[in-house]
Amino acid sequence: MKKRIYFDHAATTAINREVLEAMLPYYSQEFGNPSSIHSYGQQAKKAVDQARDKTAKVLNAGFDEIFFTGSGTEADNWAIHGVAMANKKKGNHIITSAIEHHAVLYTCQRLEKAGFRVTYLPVDRYGLVDPKQVESEIGPDTILVSIMLANNEIGTIQPIKEIGKITKEKGVYLHTDAVQGVGSIAIDVCDMNIDLLSLSAHKFYGPKGIGALYIRKGTKMTPLLYGGAQERNRRAGTENTPGIVGLATAIELARSNMEENNQRLIKMRDRLIDGVMTKIDNVVLNGHPELRLPGNANLSFEFIEGESMLLSLDLKGIAASSGSACTSGSLDPSHVLLAIGLSHEIAHGSLRLSLGIDNTEEEIDYFLDTLPEIVARLREMSPLFLQKKGGYSYV
Questions:
Q1: Residue 284 and residue 275: Cα distance in Å, rounded?
Q2: Is residue 190 among the annotated active site residues?
Q3: How would residue 395 be classed by pLDDT, with cut points 50, 70 and 90?
Q4: Which residue out of 326, 376, 386, 395 is catalytically annotated?
């Protein structure tokens, strides 16, 4: 049987067995609609309320500040579009960064077509946003700053607390896409001065198809979905009770095991990075060397295509990624890698390896034994590799 190794946890994670067991009763015995007044409905409503309370406590938020959505993408769309529409009389300026997930970037681009002005902040070579630049761009017409907590491709963790201090002083809403950060980073929305926060359960060993948006009490925003009174009249649609229960169970487990899991992941991640950099020449580590997600390693290899590496690794039983799973069908190089200063050529040769709690040291060993052979073979077939002898480098 072929070895199977999964190094793509940033794309999605396997559901935790304890999470699945918590969900199962709400597919069968307790299947009621939480909006129904009979006992079936009230049992489901009780489960939803308990899940809301658990989720709120992990974020240090209020019970009535958590709203369940169908995904992290929906939460991002709602946060940005909702604040923009509700506050357009106050101003039409939004600030974000050049390396946001497309759920944020495309929503901002849509708003630009509707007459809003959007500033896309640059980042440094590590993918960090400068809080001072955020401050300098805030004007009297600025209504929202949206900066992700941690980047889904290169793993860089942003100085959200520092940015939150600025937005609070300026009276501007702060939204953070925390889809990649929840479960790996301790989050306190009060201490970090976050007004809106998006998350998605399938990134921390919960089910797919369920996310949440934290909305600080008093935040002025419009709904994204209409048609029902669910989620206190702010998000229409029958509640996904099993998914909501799964999200809350998963986020509690992730928070309680975070320190232990992070220490183990950091150790394996650093060993993987050091091994690759030692065994293979002309490799670039993308993202911040220290301020990065525990399981993230993003590497660019000169003279070869990332897609060829992915296919070759898959044949060896190793699942990895070249960037965001949401853009895997695109032939364009990663906007994140271009934003940190990589050329098109080397950005095309990127490999994202995202480790999870089930990965082992033996799997790291197998990967480090397998990858150098793949890179050597692909480089021998690459016309670009011939230029190496002339001393030319794309870095």
A1: 13
A2: no
A3: very low
A4: 326
